[in-house]
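User: Predict the structure for this protein chain, please.
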Amino acid sequence: MVSGQAVATVLFPVKDIEPATDGCRGLSCEFAGFVIDPSVVAGIVFIGVGVLVGLGHVRSASEACQCERHRVLNECDAFKEFADRVAALNPVSVVSAIATAGGSSTKHHQTIRSGNATDSTLRRVVLIYKETVMSVPHYEAGYDETVPESMAAELSPDTAASLATNSRTSSWYASRRRSRNHIAQR
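Assistant: Here is the predicted structure, written as structure tokens:
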């Protein structure tokens, strides 16, 4: 007894003085030790952030592709309408008789004569181009070209020059056919 108080001592028997984790030797214990390592945790965080940022770029790239696809479809529709409307033009009809056995038949030929009919037809082609190809919603933002620049890029420089000067060239109809064939292949 120490100064009037009783002191009790209790002893607990401990069989092994090694830490309790020393007994864990399985794969789960090794994995747990690896996962809680600070450098591994930091690496996992950086990889996660990288994946999130990457997915954000994939989403915006996907949206840009959808927008571009929509624009291309609008342009394709505009070129088809342009080709159809130009094909429907009737520059000047001239009736000619062709002798056939047993009588005559009449055929209509489309020709271009100098003068107002040609100028009017060429002006109508330019107007149709403006109303179709150059009227797509994204035209100004995407191209911002003048009529001759756009026609030269899309049809041909010869076609653009002949339409801009309201004159005809022998290649006008050939380039018109090439344009229609090109549009049909799109």
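The chain has seven helices and two strands.
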